[in-house]
Input
Amino acid sequence: MKFEIPEHKKLVFEMRIPIRWGDMDAMGHVNNATYFRYLETIRVDWMRSIGAQPQADGHGPVIVNAFCNFYKQLEYPGEVLMKMYTSDPGRTTFETWGTMELVDKPGVIYAAGGATTIWVDFPNQKALDLPDWMREIVTP
Output
């Protein structure tokens, strides 16, 4: 199954991630699981930058699904330009999307993925309405 990143989305964050020698697999390219780690890294760094870290005794974001489409192989050495987008806020959820390019090959997407995020009341283990401040940030 392949998921497509929507055209209508909002760029919210960018970062660079160096490809490490240990990110590669036996075939000499970045291991598939590492792409998910790159997506996790940008998502977590973006959420920290806007003050949206989960609070175990309060509320915050939880990922309920994730996917990644692989278009071209990333290889060491290199530096990945990650771009994070948001879209489709619902009552309790929103979508995040990430693209991966090489810094020295701008515009060429090597992989792209996304995740559905739900806002949760952790002590009660229940979904909450997205806070107004978060809805404003994620709305394209």
Summary: The mean pLDDT is 95. Residues 13 and 90 are 21 Å apart (CA to CA).
